[in-house]
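During the second year of the project, the team shifted from modelling isolated chains to modelling whole assemblies. The rationale, set out in the original proposal, was that interfaces cannot be judged from single-chain predictions alone. As a representative example for this report, we include one of the complexes processed in the last quarter. Its constituent sequences, exactly as entered into the pipeline, are reproduced here:
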Amino acid sequence: MKFYIAFLVLFSSLYTVAQQNVVVYTEHDQDGEIINLNNSEKNRVIDINSILRIDIKTDSIYAQIAKNNDGEIPDALAKKITLLVKVMESRNESLKTIKEIVDRYNYEDFKTNKAGYDKYISDLQTAVFALDEITRIDPRIDDKALEFDDLYGSVYQAAEFVLKETLQEVETFAQDKGVYVQFGSWLISKGKRDAIHLRGFDSIAPKERFEVDRWQVIPTPEQLAELENLKKFAKDNQGKEDEILKEIAKQQLEQLRGFATTELVAAKQKVLGEIQRIKDSVGGAATGVLATVDSEINTIETSFNTLLAELNKRKSYYTGVISGADALNVSQLISTINNDLAFIKSSGQALLDEINTAVTTITNAGLTSLNDLKVFANKLKSEYSEGFNAVKTTITAKLNMFLYGPDVDFAALKFSDEVFKLSINELPSFTELDLADTGVRRKGDQLAFKLVVQSKKGTIYEENRRFFMFQVLTHLEGSVGVIFADPLANTAVQTQFQLAPYYNVLAKGLFDKGARRRSVVYNRLLDWGIGLHVSAPDFDGDDIPELGAGMVISFFADYVQTGAAINVFTGDPYWFFGIRLPVPTFNLGSISNGRD
Amino acid sequence: MIPPIILSSTNAEDALDEFNKSISKENPEENPVTVLLVLGTGSVADEAVAMADGLINSNDANYASSRVVHATNSSLILDALKALKVNPDMSAIAWDQFDQYVILSISNKFNNLAWIVLKSKFSNQPRGYINRIIRKAQAYDKQL
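Output from the structure prediction step:
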């Protein structure tokens, strides 16, 4: 048994041909941790200062040539490789099944339990027969299996050996057919893509080395320049703080108003009127298809009223915020806006589905009496779709753009003449990419990799991968922006809050390295930090900023930050907050520090 | 410890009786095992007995359903062996030159003669050949 377990553990981690990936990525971070990046998760995060080890599996290239064979190699060879690759993919499952059956063996029990014995024999025969069939793919497998100790696993070990030998046979054919490989990388930052040097694969000039500061305590020159702008911004807007917050609410209200237009309500009324007219014409008792249509329209009516009631309730909240009727609760405002977006997407889509169903039923009924209803229902559908899609598209596009940036268009990533065309046997078995050598980069930038196997006939195989770069490891991060400061002592400030520029030094990645590695959304929206805060309010109104210092806690990737500070000139305390919002265009709080 | 069953080398009746018991011809569940039948005497036969016995008495569950039977004089049970159904995927057995073989397997339930190994080859990969004959016995334990 121990042989079996040892084999399974070794084998399951060893063989990559069956996984089909030609390129295997491993991250070596600055803390000495090694992370396997082999799963093909689309939005994988790596630390912005790591080193990537990139292994090229030539066996997998041969397997891909066989799988996508277009005359590059003989069909029989391609078929054999494809079969063997399939066998290797099934190995863990097959061995697990056999183990489960073997573990059922009980000599004493089977002597009296005929049913159990028969089932054991039948199951084992089926499973081992399937295993034995592997030896028919190539006669070498049965002989090679003799060399391995494991009763069942030896067949797979032999199949692996034969597969490797068979893959080598592809090399000769690939050379004759002029098969070559290109592998390239691009840094994608703010929509721009820049080709990156990969040692052994191109002659692209390396970028100037740039390491993102992991322990930033003092502001960068860009942040100092930004602070100057923020000071002016804060001064120009003193006394308008509440209006700025209300502007956010106004934008949201406009978005909601744009959804439920009078045209849409009128279209719905026409549908309801028409279905009532039809019901009246048949004496009020709907039957058959008409009953179905009536039921579906009733469902629409209910959903519609619920949606409108919800929208009105939400609109009245923003109206209250704007008019100042209610005290401004910042966290509630943010939470409400986010809830609205989720609500519109889910309930809005459900209603659209219901309308589509009704239109289909009416159309398929083919009744002359429903002709007018068909016209009105289609009108309702177009009015509703227009409004809903406009809101949904805006929200979805903005959110996706915000979270992930523009999607990588791998088709548009073209190899320059500086990227070598390498035959398979010329390929380096691995290369290393120190991210510092990719030049200036920011949190959220992407690294794209593209490998293409080509023959004279065209592309045989293409493999793409992208990674997002964030500061995953524990780090200090400086940021500048403006806060809303609320003095707790008597000051010359007339409004509740006063805008003030700040500089924060936040410790991040303290306990959430795992979450940072797993999720782009976490890095963009949910990460948090704690640290020191310095700001420059002007509570005495003499146009000369004072100096405040304190502690700050930042949540939701600096969208919300709050803390307390003391005016070091007067000794008066004040609390403050800063906010940014993901969707509306208006942002306050942490303004770009040159790294995000 | 499960010792090998050694058949009589001189008494044909005893040898046959013991062999039939080992394969439980009438009621297979009475002795639910795959039989690894070692043939003849000599160093290769001894090696086969030792290797099979070692595996069966190891902690490896894969071998728990097998038993070693040693026919020191295989001619005494030759007719019984000839009466067994033979795995059709195996090369024909040279019954008239039966002493060239060292070990064969008989499947657990259907008592099919599943695989046989030449004496000349066995020592090259003793464990590998025992594995092979067990696998074949399990794969072909069906109505032939």
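The CA atoms of residues 186 and 195 of chain A lie 4 Å apart. DSSP finds 16 helices and 16 strands in chain A.
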